[in-house]
Amino acid sequence: MSAVVRLADVEVGTELPEQRYRITRADLVRYAGASGDFNPIHWNERVATEVGLPGVIAHGMFTMALAGRAVTGWTGDPAALVEFQVRFGRPVVVPDDDAGAELTVRGTVAALLDEGRVRVDLAVGSAGEKVLSLARAVVRLA
After folding, report:
1. Residue 113 maps to which CATH number?
2. CA distance readout (Å), 61 to 25, 110, 111
3. Contact 80/139 with Cβ under 8 angstroms?
4. How far is Cα 14 from Cα 8, in angstroms, rounded to an integer?
5. Where is the signal peptide (predicted)?
6. Is residue 41 part of a domain?
7. How far apart are CA 120 and CA 132, in angstroms?
8. What are the pLDDT digits (tens) for 84-107?
9. Do 126 and 92 contact (CB within 8 A), yes or no?
10. Which pTM does this prediction carry?
11. Which of 53, 57, 81 is nearest to 67 (CA)?
12. Strand pairing partners for 19?
């Protein structure tokens, strides 16, 4: 865990360190086991393409969780996250190779709220495409 971010150290425009996460098919299998979501679009190329997807895609909630990890990693305290919302814009296509897909998460403090809270707006992308829209987190800082 990183050092805890303090409210006095942030202002509107403060940028979170960019985070990059590698997502492989093995990660999707592990996430399916943990979440109970065994939908074949997350592991079977044939099924994914038959339903019109470009290939096997990451679970939306897994993508969201990685974006949340970027925020909690920045705060240094997972309990600091008090609100989190996203819209799923595009799927993260995960190729069947050792490289997988890369998810990039950037964040900017967009507003200082009351009670030591700040709103962080996130930009989450993969393969040059925005995959999460309206991604926002509210965190309570010390």
Report:
1. 3.10.129.10
2. 15, 24, 25
3. yes
4. 12
5. none
6. no
7. 14
8. 999 999 999 999 999 999 999 999
9. yes
10. 0.94
11. 81
12. 105
